[in-house]
Design brief:
This protein is an alpha+beta fold and about 280 residues long. Helices cover about 20% and strands about 40% of the residues. The chain folds into two domains: about 140 residues, Rossmann fold (3-Layer(aba) Sandwich); about 140 residues, Sandwich (Tumour Suppressor Smad4), CATH 2.60.200.
Length: about 280
């Protein structure tokens, strides 16, 4: 590792302190380093070329913001958790120095994680074009600010699966299966698998609940009726959509490379550990 980048949560005193510790660690060891707020997409895109690894200092939300950039510029990413749950992180804040030493010594492997492409396809509204988004965790079609359900049609490769009257519907990656999809009743998938998880949110009288779809297929969600509706990308960006619009989600070929430091806790151990920390 000759050049490291650090993406951090600028609103957290803890991560600001971690950033200073990380930059100081690199300076002492003559490793080139730079730092940027995780939400500053343009700055991350500018700095990432030539960077050996991006280390994210913060919680899962910070990680998801930074991941948007490495999905475009292929640089491996490592999360150091300074938040609450930290499913996306491979180390805790107090392990910062030791995990950086592991990077320096090359004591790590890469773990590929599938990402999603969500395409918003305009309905019968002239003058509007398709809009594409990249997600690591999920793309969700949900009701807006008004507490009114939406009516959604779900299609798999153009074949009708079900219609839902619900608060929304989540299409998650395996990595995202521990997030919004899980809270809505979906299963947890091995994060290195390649599948889509389709889970309705608070569906009314629905016979079909969460399903797992092969990566060979695309899942489309069409807004049949709604007072207002949004497409939410990784819970960090919301975009309004109209009745008649559809959101088509499919796996991207290019994966994000998670750095797995030597001795890092395994995923299923992490699931058990995090579950023990949650209130019963």
């Amino acid at each position: 590792m000759k050049r490291l980048g650090f993406a951090f949560n600028p609103t957290s005193e803890t991560t600001l302190e971690l950033r200073e510790r990380a930059m100081g660690w690199c300076q002492v060891r003559d490793i080139e380093a730079w730092a940027s707020a995780a939400g500053d997409y343009d700055e991350l895109i500018r700095q990432l070329p030539g960077t050996d690894a991006l280390v994210v200092l913060g919680g899962d939300g910070t990680f998801l913001r930074a991941a948007r950039a490495v999905a475009v510029v292929d640089v491996p990413i490592l999360g150091v958790n300074a938040g609450k749950v930290g499913f996306l992180s491979k180390a805790e804040a107090e392990q910062l120095g030791s995990v950086l030493e592991l990077l320096k010594e090359g004591r790590y492997t890469f773990e590929p994680r599938m990402t999603l492409e969500a395409v918003v396809i305009a309905g019968a509204h002239p003058g509007r074009s398709e809009v594409r988004h990249i997600a690591l965790n999920e793309a969700a079609v949900v009701r807006g600010a008004h507490a009114r359900v939406v009516r959604l049609e779900v299609l798999i490769d153009g074949t009708h699966l079900a219609s839902y009257v619900a608060d929304g519907l989540v299409i998650a990656s395996p990595t995202g299966s521990t997030g919004y999809s899980f809270s809505a009743g979906g299963p947890i998938l091995d994060p290195t698998s390649r599948n889509l998880v389709v889970t309705p949110v608070a569906a009314y009288l629905s016979a079909i609940r969460s399903i797992v779809v092969s990566p060979r297929h695309a899942v489309a969600v069409r807004v049949v009726d709604a007072h207002d509706a949004l497409v939410s990308i990784d819970g960090r960006e919301d975009f309004p959509i109209l009745v008649g619009d559809a959101v088509e989600v499919r796996p991207r070929e290019q994966a994000i490379r998670f750095i797995e430091p030597e001795g890092a806790i395994g995923f299923w151990d992490l699931v058990r550990h995090k579950a023990e920390l949650l209130p019963s």
